[in-house]
Amino acid sequence: MTGDIIKIKGTRGGLVALINTKHDFTEIKNTLKLKIEDSRGFFKGAKITFHYPVDKCLTEEMIKELENICSEGGLIPDRHISWPAAPEHKEIIEQANNESAISLADDIKPLMKEASSSLPASGLTRADQEPSLLINHNLRSGQKLSYDGNIIIMGDVNPGSEVTASGNIVIWGSLRGIAHAGAGGNQDCSIMAFRLKPVQLRIGSTISRSPENQQLTLYPEIARLVNGKMVIEPYLTYGLRKT
Questions:
Q1: What is the DSSP letter of 6?
Q2: What average pLDDT does the chain have?
Q3: How many CB atoms within 10 Å of residue 140?
Q4: Sequence spans of domains, the chain
Q5: How far is it, in rounded angstroms, from Cα 52 to Cα 19?
Q6: pLDDT at 71 over 50
Q7: Banded pLDDT at 168 (limits 50, 70, 90)
Q8: pLDDT tens digit string along 195-237?
């Protein structure tokens, strides 16, 4: 299985490709190419680095080959990304690696302990300072995910599935189900997805449904509240306006 050869994890600094060096290097390269192709552009523009056992070091030439594969797929190699991302996140990362630690049942009780943010509090919203839950797979129809904090999903939220967070929701894939951010009443939360085609969006107590004639966009979008009304705009434009 390709998951046994390379696992791609998300950190605060970017993506980390965990490499099982017990496999042949040609197999590692082919697996990396396949994972990037299967991501359908979801990883495009993201920073990425590689992590492997120190006693099974890859040569500089091998690393450059892997970095070239990432560059060709639209990713940005960055060797400054650390793993784990920060000491206070160690427990969260360890549980994210354990696929059995997160069970997508009808109601999920997160097993991850909260970690205090290492970012300065000035200029951050209340949601930005909440703990975050990372999910490394798709949500299928009938599955419900709820968390007291921010939720980051490295995959799709398919029709019939629901995501509820007291903070922000970020989906590195398609949102075609139901998403509710600011479930505790926080109106400053947002919902971002690379493909935003939900059955229903909800921020705080404000509810919005996708228009029937909504066109598929080629860029990520973010939903937020402006004067109590739901607004959807390109994520890059939102990010530029915020800075």
A1: E
A2: 76
A3: 14
A4: 2-77, 89-242
A5: 5
A6: yes
A7: very high
A8: 888 999 999 999 987 655 556 666 788 999 998 899 988 876 4
State how beta strands 206-208 and 200-203 pair.
Answer: antiparallel
Q: Compute the distance between CA of residue 28 and CA of residue 23 in angstroms, rounded to an integer.
A: 7
Q: Is 49 helix (H, G, I), strand (E, B) or coil?
A: strand
User: CA 201 to CA 206: how far, in whole Å?
Assistant: 8
| Sequence-separated (6 or more) residues with CB below 8 Å from residue 166 | 127, 130, 147, 148, 149, 182, 183, 184, 186
Please, what is the end-to-end C-alpha distance for the chain in angstroms? 42
SS (H, E, C) 205-222: CEEECCCCCCCCCCCCEE
Query: Which of the four pLDDT bands, split at 50, 70 and 90, describes residue 171?
Result: very high
pLDDT at 178: 95
Residue 138 clears pLDDT 70, i.e. is over it:
yes
Please give the single-letter amino acid code of residue 20: N
Which CATH superfamily, name and number, covers 2-77?
A: Cell-division inhibitor MinC, N-terminal domain (3.30.750.50)
- In this structure, whether the domain defined by 89-242 belongs to CATH 3.40.50.300 is answered with no
- Residue type for position 223: A
Please count the other Cβ atoms lying within 10 Å of the Cβ belonging to residue 224: 20
111 vs 159, which has greater pLDDT?
A: 159
Phi-psi region of 64 (alpha: psi -120 to 50; beta: other; left: phi over 0): alpha
Predicted local confidence at residue 224, as pLDDT:
92
> CA 225 to CA 206: how far, in whole Å?
8
pTM of the model: 0.49
Contact in structure between 125 and 187 (CB atoms under 8 Å): no
**Edge-to-edge strands, sheet with 150-153:** 132-135, 150-153, 169-175, 191-196, 221-226, 229-234
